[in-house]
Amino acid sequence: MTTIELSEEVRALRETVGLMADQLTRIGVGPKLMKTVDAAEFLGVGPDVMFEWRKAGEGPPYLHITARTLRYDRDDLVAWAKTHEVK
Asked: What's this model's pTM, rounded to 2 decimal places?
């Protein structure tokens, strides 16, 4: 196997692993702590909506890790979303 062939194979494997990780995240097996953009995607809203919810104190709970780092716990997102269920 040549270096070029090996490089192409590694690139294809990385793409496959990335797609698999995306699929796992979509079915709830993804990361436990999510960035705002990931939490927004998980809830089906835009990151700007997450910001507005935070600003108004209406959104899901989040962790304020540092001045510039926020994280959302996946279980908290699910619990928060269930409180907004219409029956």
From this structure: 0.64
